[in-house]
């Protein structure tokens, strides 16, 4: 009963209401009290047990001191906002372009034009005006906000309920955008949502949470996942898959999974020179010039894309990405023996054995 009720009570009630620091204190106090009672109060202790009493007193004093001298994790950040729910603890911190989002203490994203290109590039590649789009992983809401600038219905799927509630912190117009009849935010696992919905989309853009080695992240890169996505894309629809930094095996494994799933795939390094945009479709992708891509964009989308630069014109903005193109074979060649990433072969998550910092002699030491 304790194993069943304990996690439910902690995850759905205690952590969201009072936070991890106070929960740890609350759950520790009964044990401290029980120890003090058994050593000091229950019955007189013989002289031989004086050490027990001294240790119990020291533990009690140390516990009280820790309560007053320790601080919660978010105290590491100066200006911040904190939200907690049954899924995670969210910290929004920073000012201006230095704002960050942390989920359970892990840095997830920051303000960057890269996340804008996750929206504008696939939509601009369409050979017709888009009807709708989907973004999986809300983050700061930058990609979602950029999709909304196209004035089409947008669905955003986010696993952590508190993440969209921080939208206002990163974008002052966030609350107004949320109220738009074109906006639809769903709290759900992204893959689970795609497997259950019958909706068809012109563009699906995926921005899995970093790091790329995170447990469960393979489910948003796997060949089986792409099979589901193809069922939710219209015949000429486009997938934008983001891959942050990873080693050669991760690059090759993700690239091979996309190659085996879509007949037409292009890869571009980001504006920042790190990470990769994969543009994939079952329909041939046009060879648009930067000028032609801009011609497909409404004025509001162009304005949004150029909000943070870094280029002076939208044509140069697209050119900055298009010039960084490479092929799937280039990425696969980094580790040609790596198999396609699959649900039961999450190579990105099993990385320690191939990392240089874990040498054979260290494996012996660990054993």
Number of separate domains:
3
Low-confidence stretches: none
Question: Secondary-structure element sequence?
Answer: HHEEEEHEHEHHHEHEHEHEEHHHEHH
What is the CATH class designation of the largest domain?
Alpha Beta
- Roughly how many Å is the radius of gyration? 25 Å
Largest pleated sheet: 8 strands, mixed
Counting DSSP H or I runs of 4 or more residues, the number of helices is 15
* CATH superfamily label of the largest domain: Vaccinia Virus protein VP39
What gross morphology would you assign?
globular
Keyword list:
single chain; 367 residues; alpha/beta; Rossmann fold; 8-stranded mixed β-sheet; 4-stranded antiparallel β-sheet; 15 helices; 43% helix; globular
Q: What do these coordinates show?
A:
- By secondary structure, this protein is α/β, with parallel strands linked by helices.
- The chain has three domains: 2-70, no CATH class; 76-106, no CATH class; 112-353, Rossmann fold (3-Layer(aba) Sandwich).
- The protein has helices spanning 2-41, 50-69, 113-125, 142-148, 162-165, 167-170, 174-178, 190-196, 223-232, 248-261, 290-295, 299-305, 314-322, 328-332, 360-366, and strands spanning 80-84, 89-93, 100-103, 106-110, 133-136, 154-158, 183-187, 201-206, 233-243, 264-269, 276-281, 325-326.
- Strands 7-6-5-8-9-11-10-12 form an eight-stranded mixed beta sheet, with helices on both faces.
- Strand 2 and strand 3 form a beta hairpin.
- Helix 1 crosses helix 2.
- The longest helix has 40 residues, at 2-41.
- 34% of the residues are buried.
């Amino acid at each position: 009963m304790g194993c069943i009720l304990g996690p439910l009570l902690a995850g759905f009630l205690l952590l969201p209401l009072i936070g991890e620091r106070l929960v740890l204190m609350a759950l520790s106090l009964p044990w401290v009290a029980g120890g003090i009672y058994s050593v000091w109060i229950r019955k007189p202790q013989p002289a031989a047990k004086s050490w027990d009493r001294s240790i119990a007193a020291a533990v009690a004093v140390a516990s009280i001191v820790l309560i007053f001298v320790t601080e919660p994790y978010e105290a590491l950040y100066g200006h911040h906002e904190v939200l907690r729910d049954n899924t995670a603890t969210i910290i929004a911190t920073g000012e201006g372009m230095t704002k960050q989002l942390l989920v359970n203490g892990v840095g997830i994203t920051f303000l960057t034009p890269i996340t804008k290109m996750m929206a504008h590039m696939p939509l601009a590649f369409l050979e017709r005006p888009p009807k709708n789009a989907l973004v999986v992983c809300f983050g700061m809401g930058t990609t979602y906000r950029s999709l909304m600038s196209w004035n089409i219905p947008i669905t955003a799927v986010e696993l952590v309920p508190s993440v969209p509630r921080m939208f206002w912190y990163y974008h002052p117009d966030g609350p107004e955008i949320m109220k738009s009849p074109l906006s639809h935010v769903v709290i759900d696992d992204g893959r689970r949502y795609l497997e259950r919905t019958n909706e068809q989309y012109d563009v699906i853009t995926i921005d899995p949470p970093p790091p790329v080695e995170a447990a469960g992240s393979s489910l948003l890169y796997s060949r089986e996942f792409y099979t589901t996505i193809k069922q939710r894309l219209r015949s000429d629809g486009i997938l934008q898959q983001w891959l942050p930094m990873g080693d050669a095996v991760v690059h090759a494994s993700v690239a091979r999974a996309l190659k085996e799933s879509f007949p037409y795939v292009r890869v571009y390094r980001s504006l920042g020179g790190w990470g990769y945009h994969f543009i994939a479709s079952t329909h041939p992708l046009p060879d648009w010039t930067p000028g032609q891509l801009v011609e497909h964009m409404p004025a509001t989308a162009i304005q949004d894309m150029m909000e943070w630069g870094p280029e002076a014109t939208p044509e140069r903005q697209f050119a900055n990405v298009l010039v960084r193109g490479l092929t799937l074979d280039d990425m696969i060649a980094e580790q040609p023996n790596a198999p396609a990433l699959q649900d039961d072969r999450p190579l990105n998550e099993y990385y320690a054995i191939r990392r240089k910092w874990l040498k054979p002699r260290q494996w012996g030491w660990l054993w």
